[in-house]
Amino acid sequence: MTADRQTLVAGVDSSTQSTKVMVCDARTGEVVRSGRAEHPDTTEVDPQVWWDALGAASGGLLSEVRSIGIAGQQHGMVTLDETNSVVRPALLWNDTRSGQAAADLTDELGGPQAWADAVGLVPVASFTITKLRWMAEHEPGLADRVARVLLPHDWLTWRLLGDDAQPVTDRGDASGTGYYSATSAAYRTDLLSRAFGGRAPELPRVLRPAEAAGHTPEGMLVSAGTGDNMAAGLALELDEGDVVVSLGTSGTVFGVSETQPADPSGTVAGFADATGRFLPLACTLNAARVLTATASMLGTDLAGLDRLALAAEPGAGGLTLLPYLDGERTPNLPDASGTLLGLRRANMTQENLARAAVEGMLCGLAAGLDALRAHGVVARRVLLIGGAAQSAAVRAAAPAVFGVPVAVPPPGEHVAIGAARQAAWALSASRSSGPVEPPRWQGNATVHLDEPTSAESAAGEQARQRHAEAREQVHGHAEA
Q1: What is the distance between the alpha carbons of residues 77 and 240, in angstroms, rounded to a whole number?
Q2: Cα 233 vs. chain centroid, distance in angstroms?
């Protein structure tokens, strides 16, 4: 179906690696055109890079688009001065220099439970509040210039609206800062002030889920926007019992809940979603890059890694890879490194190492799934998304490792499509005097993976057990 000029909406995914733009039919969700531009591979970046990438990715695509939504990588720290100029390059979620700041903040408030009760999460290096503490301690001259703090999607939304606009955000992305309470729908400026040298910079206004941020100078409606995981949840139209495992640069496990968990271990972050519910989430720093790094080490590409992993028996002959290649967020081990355990002459093969990489990546996410269950999230099936979900070896191993039915939605840019769905929702709400539900876009093209054999299930359980034992060993050494 060809979308007419009244029904075109756009969604933007400004991620760690790139900007993707999807233009969709507001009624059906059909993607009618798309664009992409790359970002530098770094943990800090001038936000202007995102704006330039948005212009490059959307060039020629936004004609007749009536509404646009921005979904951005969570937790990034964008600092502006009194003139709204950027004070320093934005620190991204995967920048771990604030690990000590996270530990200090946790202790200062009275421990992990105090933070979980206050904002639904326990500080780790990923969260914005810890980056602000790091800046206050290590760059005090720059910190003194900071007048307001935004998240990546907030900054892009503000740029779309024009420099005179009031910065805004949504409850979903705000819930990942460490200074916003989704249960009380209010900023915790006391926590922000504690982190930032005794003062609280200005923060963006938090919009309701279907509330519009405003219009671009050209007249295009701009939705509230949200964080990347919240947008993926919108695209997948999650119901109770659905748990998403996303295998991108990072790995995430999340589902929807009517209540916010308060996990003092910090494994489950009690984020808000983009619809008014909550989005309990566990995140690992290491996901798809575990596969690309292992493929490079073995002198092959991802297709070659698939072939090697599929040639190995489930369980990888007893090899266990703890893939903390870039440190780790869950568990909170920012300085950890990868560990390969169980090496014997009989299992030292390329095939087993490839299989151990696949299973190690999945076991880290399976531990997150267990943590979500422990905090009340119902898991009837796993929806496997992200670039690594297309791997044949990942699909072969996932049902046994997760222990529940696994389905793979059609490949697509779920974050950008979720942002487009929010834009369609905001457009409908702007034309209605009453509550409006988001449009239903999901089709029936989901692939349901085969259930594992009993032998495969046993091997998956053994791999998870070995991974848990290795995790405890490494975590214990780190604490010592």
Answers
A1: 32
A2: 10
Give the CA angle between residues 354, 38, 72 to the nearest 5°: 90
272, 175 Cβ separation under 8 angstroms: yes
Is 170 labeled as catalytic in the residue annotation?
no
Query: Which amino acid appears at position 248 of this protein?
Result: G
Options 154, 173, 228, 326, the catalytic residue? 228
Convert the pLDDT of each residue in 395-411 to its tens digit.
Answer: 999 999 999 999 999 88
* Tokens read off for 449: 């993976």
Angle at 171 between CA 111 and CA 164, to 5 degrees: 120
The tens digit of pLDDT for each residue in 129-146 reads 999 999 999 999 999 999
Lookup result for tokens 């695209």: 235
DSSP string, 103-131: HHHHHHHTSHHHHHHHHSS---TTSHHHH
- Which are the contacts of 100, defined by CB distance < 8 A and separation ≥ 6? none
Q: What CA–CA distances, in Å, run from 340 to 104, 325, 336, 467?
A: 31, 11, 13, 10
Which amino acid is located at 107 in the chain?
D
Give the containing element (helix H, strand E) for 364.
Answer: helix 350-374
Ordered alpha helix ranges (H), 95-247: 99-109, 112-119, 128-138, 140-143, 152-161, 171-174, 189-195, 228-236
272-323 pLDDT, tens digit per residue, is 999 999 999 998 889 999 999 999 999 999 999 999 999 999 999 999 999 9
